Amino acid sequence: AQTVTQSQPEMSVQEAETVTLSCTYDTSESDYYLFWYKQPPSRQMILVIRQEAYKQQNATENRFSVNFQKAAKSFSLKISDSQLGDAAMYFCAYRSPAETSGSRLTFGEGTQLTVNP
Amino acid sequence: NAGVTQTPKFRVLKTGQSMTLLCAQDMNHEYMYWYRQDPGMGLRLIHYSVGEGTTAKGEVPDGYNVSRLKKQNFLLGLESAAPSQTSVYFCASSYTLWGRGRKVEYNNQPQHFGDGTRLSIL
């Protein structure tokens, strides 16, 4: 079974600065997908960014980018020019390609990000 | 465009009572999921369904049952609620792309989540 670990329960950043959230995972599969989801106080689960394991290029979405290190099984999220609206709980998630498992998501424990004005 | 709708949004039950949580999606997604979210533990998969009439167990299925009689609906039932089932429940659905009679791309599609149901069991 796959596991996802987020070792930083809480992080804080000053507005306009850059912060990196860590995520590691354990798997024996070679092909899989990784996601970062954001959960603000409204409780909505909002997709931030996704990465296919077969792609060497790191994914980027505006101010959000990832550092995907497949050999190290690491998938960190970098938020540049942090904004007050970025304050939320961030979840790293792993998706297996195995159709027999319903392509389920396995989530990390989450990192609570605070943005200070 | 409603997306994924969960009913109810909040409920308080007494130990031993039963109830059903309803998840409805209007995106014609084949895959649907039920998760529970507890403090410090992220989201954990309870049950899932890869199509109408099919269901399967996830990581924490004990004490729950599900049904998927219609493609757009996925029901989560608690037959005899226990305080350990106090949690926030999320439903999600995801898309599959078919080509030449088989699924060609679906794993990179994100799961779309409902807004959650906060369930408290006293």
Q: Gist?
A:
The complex is a heterodimer of chains A (117) and B (122). Chain A is mostly beta strands. Chain A is built from no helices and 12 strands.
* Through-space gap between termini of chain B: 36 Å
Give the amount of beta strand of chain A, in percent.
over 45%
- In N-to-C order, the SSE pattern of chain A is EEEEEEEEEEEE
Task: Tell me the number of strands of chain B.
Answer: 13
Structure description:
The complex is a heterodimer of chains A (117) and B (122). With 117 residues, chain A is mainly β. Chain A has strands spanning 3-5, 10-14, 19-21, 24-26, 33-39, 46-52, 60-61, 64-69, 74-79, 88-95, 105-107, 111-116. Chain A has no helices and 12 strands. The termini of chain A are far apart. With 122 residues, chain B is mostly beta strands. The mean pLDDT of chain B is 89. The interface between A and B is medium-sized, with 27 and 27 residues.
Secondary structure topology:
The complex is a heterodimer of chains A (117) and B (122).
Chain A: E1 3-5, E2 10-14, E3 19-21, E4 24-26, E5 33-39, E6 46-52, E7 60-61, E8 64-69, E9 74-79, E10 88-95, E11 105-107, E12 111-116
Parallel strand pairs in A: 2-12
Antiparallel strand pairs in A: 1-4, 3-9, 5-6, 5-10, 7-8, 8-9, 10-11, 10-12
Chain B: E1 4-7, E2 10-13, E3 19-25, E4 31-37, E5 43-51, E6 54-57, E7 65-67, E8 73-78, E9 87-94, E10 97-99, E11 102-105, E12 112-113, E13 117-121
Features:
heterodimer, A: mainly beta, four-stranded antiparallel beta sheet, 12 strands, B: 122 residues, mainly beta, globular
